[in-house]
Every structure is written in C-alpha cells, then in structure tokens.
User: Fold Transcription initiation factor IIE subunit beta from Ananas comosus.
Amino acid sequence: MALQESLNKFKQQQEKCQSTLTSIAARSASSKAPQTQRTVSPMNAPSVSTKVPTPAKFSNDTERLQHINNIRKSPVGAQIKRVIDILRETRLAYTPEQINDACYVDIMGNKAVFDSLRNNPKVNYDGKRFSFKAKHDLKGKDDLLHLIRKFPEGLPVVDVKDAYPSVMEDLQILKTQGQVWLLSNMDSQEDIVYPNDPKVALKVDDELKLLFRSIELPRDMVDIEKELQKNGMKPATNTAQRRAMAQVHGITSKPKPKKRREISRRTKLTNAHLPELFQTLNVPDS
Assistant:
C-alpha cells in the first residue's frame, strides 16, 4: 500500500510539472504575438512604397557648380564667345535669363559682359532679347546667289559663312551647278566666290589685255602650276604627283605618233593657188 501511494504522488507531481511548463510556454507565445502581427490597411488607402530611399549624392552637383563658377570667372572674351556660339547655332532670341540657363553666362551679373555683348557687331539686342546678327541677311540659296551676283569682282566667303546654318552647303551646290566660281587666295588663305553669270559685264583694261597676251606660258605643265602658286592661285591639277604615281605603277606616257595624211589625186585641194604648200607632200601614183 505504501508503494502504491508513493507512485500516485509521483504521477501527480509529473502532471503538475507538465501543466506548469505548458502555461509558461503559452505565456511566452502570447508575449511574442504583437511583434509578428500584420497590419491590415484599408482597401482604398494609397500604396506606400517600402523601398528604402537612396541617399543623395552631391558629387555631380558639386562638379556642375564648379563648372559654372569657372565659366563666370573666365575672361570676358571667353564668355562672349560662349554666348555668340549659342546664338549662331540656334538662331533664336534669348533673354539674359535664358542665356544663363543655356551656357551659364550671367549677363545681368557682369556689366562688362553685358556691355560687350550689346555692342558686338554679330549680336542684335532689342532691349529685351539677344540674337545673332549676320553681315548679310540671307534666308537661302536664292538669296545667296543674288548677293554673289552683286559682287562681280568677288565676295569673300567669310562674309557669308555665318548668314544661315546651311550656307556652306548651298555654296558648294552653286559651284557644282556652275553658277559661281570658288577660288582660293593662297596669300590671305581666304576663299573668294565669283558669279558665273554671262549677263554680268566685265570691263577689262586694254593694258591688261596686252599684258596677258604678252606673257609666254611655259611648255611644261609642272612649270605652269608652279607659276600659278607663285601668284597666289591654286592649280586645278597636280602634274608632278600624277607623274610620280605613274612611275610607281610603271606607267609611261608616250605621245601618240601623228599619222601623216597622204594626199591622193582624189583629194580636193582648196588651196590650189598656193602650190608651195604641197611640195613636201607625197602623192602616190594612182
């Protein structure tokens, strides 16, 4: 009996310990539940991005500010060039604020820049906006040709190269069409455009005509090209280079022998009254 009572007490103690452990585990689980509880947002509530914002980087902005500072501390001439380049490329009218946004030149904050830009011959200022001003107001190829024909003695290309963006392309088109002549001056390194218009009357002095006719041209084309270069003209050919290339490739230029025309009895002689012209000719027997 004593043994049985001891066993019953032992079982009761085990059950008590088991219930105690269960209650402790339940309390521990209930204390952790709020940390894992999900929050339910309303259906109509705007979605909020849970992405962590990237920290701002100030390196690029610092470089830009340094660039702007360097421009505004540069010489007045350099700042003027930046503005004129913008005006020429876009052909638009800019306010000082728009110029500042486009090329970082603060016109209103620098009186020297403002005065120089306002008085620049390539800039037009209407009191509010700045725009590019070309020497000749041309709109296209027809205006360009009309202007060139007003200068039969030649028009420097530098005077029209800024008239409008495609003026140089139109100049080459006019040259290809044969409406103008485009020559280079080797002394001044300038291109001169001349009108090729038969209606243009050119008056040449008699002394110049005599001088032109009295000049004896060299027989060799190489010498002619050298003389042209000495007088500031660019030859259209390069005979020396052509001959050098021919020697490299083993090409020899031999003059074609002229075939001597024989006169037969059937040949009609229009100058029969000058028999001395035909004394050296061989007339075969018929």
In short: The radius of gyration is 48 Å. Residues 35-46 have pLDDT under 50 and may be disordered. The CA atoms of residues 186 and 231 lie 8 Å apart.
